UniProtKB/TrEMBL annotation:
One of its GO terms (molecular function) is acyltransferase activity, transferring groups other than amino-acyl groups. Residues 34-169 form the N-acetyltransferase domain. This is N-acetyltransferase domain-containing protein. InterPro entries: Acyl_CoA_acyltransferase, GNAT_dom, N-acetyltransferase. It comes from Penicillium hordei.
């Protein structure tokens, strides 16, 4: 692993309606899309303010943070685009959201990544978060050997919790997480994962 990883601009994980690809710091489309996504009212209500409010800041964030995750884990935050038709190329598709598998660096990292997602408000309620998350989980298991995955969401975040249930994760209770500044979060995990989550680094 390490810095030899190249995020190919033509790589995509395909699902029925979606394409999942790397965020590219030199793509004005990707940078402007991230600004739009992260500054929507819905996003800021559940995920807070990121401070990424210009294309330049988005480009720096993608280069310095997102690509560091790709290099370290071969996964991270991916762009989700909607295909206009079944056999569309990536260039023909329209960005509508993001889906991510994230595992931080010690000491603030657990031994399994967590799955996350965000979609433009006008595209929610159509099953896209569920479809993208299932495709990313299948890819990560098959190609990268990832078979332990967490899901974390705010305790009142019903849409997000519903997605975690629909992709097959189990509710394991509310816990205070070191990854989100000690805030209490609803913790979900794949059913095959030990009931004792301390083995993944979660405190009791
Ligand atoms: C959470 C989020 C990603 C869900 O995306 P989505 O594509 O709508 O998810 P899905 O359609 O796959 O499933 C969402 C579930 O919530 C329901 N839902 C989503 N939006 C809804 C709405 N506006 N009104 C009513 N129900 C809604 C869906 O009906 C579905 O449940 P169901 O299958 O039982 O009907 C999206 O609302 C979002 O981006 N929110 C802002 C960012 C965020 O909260 N990210 C996660 C926190 S880290």
């Amino acid at each position: 692993m390490g810095s030899v990883f190249e995020a190919s601009p033509t790589f995509s994980i395909e699902s029925e309606r979606l394409q999942i690809s790397y965020f590219l710091p030199d793509s004005p489309e990707h940078c402007l899309f991230l600004v739009e996504l992260w500054n929507s009212e819905e996003f800021m209500k559940t995920c807070g303010r990121t401070g990424i409010d210009t294309a330049e800041k988005a480009s720096n964030f993608i280069r310095n943070r997102v690509h560091t995750d790709y290099a370290r884990n071969h996964y991270g935050m991916f762009l989700v685009s909607l295909k206009p038709h079944e056999h569309a190329s990536l260039a023909e598709s329209t960005p509508i959201g993001s889906v991510s598998l994230m595992r931080g660096e010690p000491p603030n990292a657990y031994l399994a990544p967590d799955i996350g997602y965000a979609f433009l408000t006008k595209e929610t309620g159509k099953g896209y978060a569920t479809e993208a998350a299932l495709a990313l989980l299948a890819y990560a298991k098959k190609e990268l050997g990832v078979d332990s995955v967490f899901g974390f969401c705010g305790t009142g975040d019903t849409y997000s919790a519903r997605v975690l249930e629909k992709i097959g994760l189990e509710f394991r209770g509310p816990k205070k997480l070191k990854v989100f500044g000690g805030r209490e979060s609803a913790v979900y995990a794949l059913p095959i994962m030990s009931q004792d989550l301390t083995v993944y680094g979660l405190d009791d």
